[in-house]
Amino acid sequence: MKPHPPGAVASLVFGICALITGLVPLFGMLLGMIATIQSRRADSFLRADQDRYQVTSLPVAGLVTGIIGITMSLVSTLWALFWFAVIGAIATAAAHQPVPVEPVLLW
Q1: How far is the C-alpha of 95 from the C-alpha of 70, rounded, in Å?
Q2: Under a CB-based contact definition with an 8 Å cutoff, are residues 67 and 50 in contact?
Q3: pLDDT at residue 73, as a whole number
Q4: Cα 49–chain centre separation
Q5: C-alpha angle with apex 49: 46 to 44, nearest 5 degrees?
Q6: How buried is 87 (Cβ within 10 angstroms: 0-12 exposed, 13-18 middle, 19+ buried)?
């Protein structure tokens, strides 16, 4: 039985980890990038020597799961930044409220 191309299994493992941690801002993006890099590496090894390695869909699955993980992490990062901006705007607006002044009676 022929071996898998180098990086094929790693791309799938990192892609699945990227899917699992996709809701954590920036962490799923890092794992997704590693998955896509490993997938491209495995694909290049496979294209260079198809007779030596087993032709499987592991690099494609790693690429797809890595891209989905990157997308999920990007969306969660933008969502977190949006809420930090909203909370910051509310805090800034609350800090700059005018202080109520007692009316001064002139007579």
Answers
A1: 37
A2: no
A3: 94
A4: 32
A5: 35
A6: exposed
pLDDT tens track for 80-95: 999 999 999 888 888 8
3-state secondary structure the chain: CCCCCCCHHHHHHHHHHHHHCCCCCCHHHHHHHHHHHHHHHHHHHHHHCCCCCCCCCHHHHHHHHHHHHHHHHHHHHHHHHHHHHHHHHHHHHHHCCCCCCCCCCCC
Token pair for residue 84?
Answer: 């930090």
For residue 102, what pLDDT is reported?
A: 79
**Model's pTM, two decimal places?**
0.79
20-39 confidence digits (pLDDT tens):
998 888 889 999 999 999 99
